[in-house]
């Protein structure tokens, strides 16, 4: 079975799954009236609701991400990458962070884009800079933060400044600690495939872009579903109230808010409204840690990263993000 046939089969499976979701969405009210539904534990229904809400929130951004990834695969060549990326590591990191800051993307939608860029030859440290700043300090996120905190320009500005500095430091550490693109073997082999299609008609290249985007979507989608399920499971069965009781001092409250950001797996366009709800419980610096840490790394994003990059790299990246964000926040106390 060729690759496009496999993709078509995946398309059919995806459509079938979508039909099941639509069925339960349309007829869910009727099902809820039946006696047997009362026998289902409330926690299981809550898990189902949280799981679907995470998916519905994330899928549009993943779709945007895979379309951009498909465009990069077909229309962006290795020669373009060599011209755009400075040879100097510091300049490359700075450029990637600046571009990420101007690029509206969710933390789950950014993964396929970074995967494709790294496969095309972007250094891993520049890819990390883009990965961290894209979901964190793009214009949409900053505006939503400003609105969520009652038109407070200070908290929005602090999120942007702390996030940018932390992303720069993390990316520079990555440039010192890691060589190579850190992609898994399958993706490394795929990266070696050259796209010598400049003379191919635009219509054919556009169709190839769509095919690559479909492949990317189903490749990323299964890990998004897995991550969303684990995030929903943890939110359902791990008591957030118990975590909140731990956060008394600024150290513990900062760690608790970072832990909540990881567990809740909120999209960065909406997390500010959740963070604002903790204003009467935790200090502003702890809430800032929540706003900076969550878009950089969360539970569902971790599964997607593990599907693309080597496990050792992902685990060390998570440790770097955690340590650097905590240190940056500690300077504000």
UniProtKB/TrEMBL annotation:
Membrane protein topology class: Multi-pass membrane protein
Whether Transmembrane counts among this entry's keywords is: yes
Report TM segments: 12-32, 44-72, 92-114, 126-149, 155-178, 223-244, 250-267, 274-293, 313-332
Q: Which compartments is it annotated to reside in?
A: Cell membrane
Q: Which UniProt keywords apply?
A: Cell membrane, Membrane, Transmembrane, Transmembrane helix
Top-rank taxon of the source lineage equals Bacteria
Primary localisation category: membrane
- Look up the record and report any one GO term of the cellular component aspect: plasma membrane
Note the InterPro entries from the entry: DUF318, UPF0718
Q: Does the keyword Membrane apply?
A: yes
Entry's family note: Belongs to the UPF0718 family.
Query: What PANTHER family does the record tag this protein with?
Result: UPF0718 PROTEIN YCGR
- What is the protein's given name? Permease
């Amino acid at each position: 079975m060729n690759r496009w046939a496999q993709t078509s089969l995946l398309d059919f499976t995806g459509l079938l799954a979508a039909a099941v979701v639509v069925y339960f969405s349309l007829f869910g009210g009727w099902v809820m009236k039946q006696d047997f539904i009362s026998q289902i534990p409330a926690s299981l229904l809550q898990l189902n609701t949280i799981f679907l809400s995470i998916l519905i929130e994330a899928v549009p951004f993943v779709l945007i991400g895979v379309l951009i990834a498909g465009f990069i695969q077909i229309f962006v060549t290795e020669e373009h990458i060599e011209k755009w990326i400075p040879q100097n590591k510091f300049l490359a990191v700075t450029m990637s962070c600046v571009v990420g800051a101007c690029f509206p993307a969710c933390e789950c939608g950014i993964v396929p884009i970074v995967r494709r860029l790294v496969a095309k030859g972007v250094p891993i440290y520049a890819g990390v800079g883009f990965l961290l700043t894209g979901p964190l300090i793009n214009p949409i996120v900053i505006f939503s933060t400003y609105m969520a905190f009652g038109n407070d320009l200070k908290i929005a500005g602090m999120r942007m400044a702390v996030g940018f500095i932390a992303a720069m430091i993390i990316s520079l550490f990555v440039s010192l600690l890691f060589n190579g693109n850190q992609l898994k073997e399958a993706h490394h082999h795929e990266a070696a495939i050259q796209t010598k299609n400049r003379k191919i008609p635009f219509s054919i290249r556009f169709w190839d872009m769509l095919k690559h985007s479909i492949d990317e979507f189903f490749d990323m989608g299964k890990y998004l579903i897995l991550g969303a399920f684990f995030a929903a499971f943890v939110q359902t069965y791990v008591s957030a109230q118990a975590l909140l009781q731990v956060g008394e001092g600024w150290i513990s409250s900062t760690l608790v808010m970072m832990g909540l950001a990881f567990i809740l797996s909120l999209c960065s366009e909406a997390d500010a409204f959740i963070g604002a709800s903790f204003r009467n419980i935790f200090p502003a610096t702890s809430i800032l840690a929540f706003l900076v840490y969550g878009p950089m790394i969360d539970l569902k994003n971790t599964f997607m990263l593990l599907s693309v990059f080597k496990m050792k790299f992902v685990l060390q990246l998570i440790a770097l993000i955690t340590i650097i964000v905590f240190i940056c926040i500690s300077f504000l106390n």
